[in-house]
User: Fold this.
Amino acid sequence: MIRRLLLILVAAVSVLGGVLVIRTLTFRSRQVEAAPTTVTIDVTAAAERLAEVLKFRTISYQDTSDFDLAEFAALHRYLETAFPRVHQALGRETVGGASLLYTWRGADTSLAPIVLMAHQDVVPVEPGTEADWAHSPFSGAISGGYVWGRGAIDDKSNLTAQLEAVELLLARGYEPRRTVILAYGHDEEVGGLNGAARIVELLEQRGLRPAFVVDEGGAVAEGIIPGLGFPVAAVGVAEKGYLSLELSVRVEGGHSSMPPPQTAIGILARALERLERKQMPRGLRPATEAMFDYLGPELPFFARLVMANRWLFEPVIVRQFGSTAIGNAMLRTTTAPTMFQAGVKENVLPSSASAVVNFRILPGDSIGHVLEHVRRAIDDPRVEIRMLGFRSEPSPTSSVDSEHFRLIARSIRQVIPQAVVVPWLVVGGTDSRHFTRLTPDVYRVSLVRAGPGDMNRIHGTDERVGIENYGEMVRFYVQLLQHAAM
Ligand SMILES: [Zn+2]
Assistant:
């Protein structure tokens, strides 16, 4: 009897082992072959133009009436002088006050246009941190092989790299077959409602349905995932949604010598504690599944075996991956209390307390799901819940099987041949969310190289881009335009 059981066990383990190994061996690389680019550019001159662009204080403020439109106008005038061919050959329109829409008309108007995006605005420098910068954030410093300043990564380098690419193609006499549209919003950092959203309306009125759209969102990660010996170029195929909720409590005030069991602060603090404890559930979504499909085959045998057999190892992967901040953000709708206000004096009971909680919504969840979850988790009628200003649902997921995804992957590998291209879920937000109405093929990537210390530079201190890296960004757009539009 025991012998028979043992035999069955051995047979079962062998079959399982066989399945795991066969799936691993047939888990083939999805990287496209690409001949290295031969495009050369004058990277020093290009870096100097980027540095000039970083000097304009095109800052996004929460209150859009605080925008300094004169700075945007000055930037526009500089672009005219820095990219003369672009401004001669392309049509340029100003949309929504300060957004720019360039049209490079293709010879064959029956072809759907392509759209390259970037944004002109930058986040403010946090007051009190100006002196922490190695080079003043709006000085446009070039030093130690880098261009320094607010917007060097997010997102002025993409804007100028695209203009450099078009300028270069014009200088070499290229004429596009397919129309190329450049869309540069001016309020991306506060949701893009006056910029990208207006541009989308305009294109829609004109009956234009882009073949595909490329915006910021993914980067070339180096040394961020421990143990990987190659750079990973992350191409965002979806992005999370956005919602901020204000929680507020109103009670009778009074003297703090005779307090009730809970003050407004206590009630609200309990609600926030419940929200942080009861997180929305984790799950692998198509964009993240696709990431594992593309990354897995490039990994050493054991890791490859795990990735190739997610039907068995999914719980392990979710637990491991979810233990990192970025992994957690890619696996669930995140909950982040970001503001808290209450109280005016130490011996006065506060009559009100309010907090803001920011949610980044996983594809598959929705604003409705989050509201329902929050009400259930807090479960306290004294806490009022209100949606604040800008919000967006998660984007649809763009296909990784489209020829457009392959074109982008090929262009990346032409410029950085060692890079492994992987689909990605963008955990922040981009202006491209407004374009998902016009086309299913929206991809979010730029060739900014990002090492472990670089993530904090985005929206933080000492934002900078490598000069050689900036050259790669330009060449990527040259290749992409040549493949897609020429
Ligand atoms: Zn950005």
In short: The chain is about 35% helix and 20% strand. The pocket of zinc ion is lined by residues 119, 154-155, 188, 216 (CB under 6 Å).
